[in-house]
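The protein record quoted in full:
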Amino acid sequence: METNHNSQKPNPKKKVTKTALRFAGLGTTLAVSIALGAFGGKKLDDYLGTDKPLCTAAGALLGLGIGMWSVLSGIQSK
């Protein structure tokens, strides 16, 4: 007698792993967005010769905003 592999119940461990990896990816996206914004702001501060890291802070905040938008759209897509 043949068994139908499609009728088996999904493995709960696989579902948890898939969900964990999805959220780890979203967290990585957020971290990279902030880091790239801060890095770009730092480069701009160096180029402009500013005494205070205003562009670094602005870049980090811009990266945070873009990262949060990306994370929220990623969460809403599923």
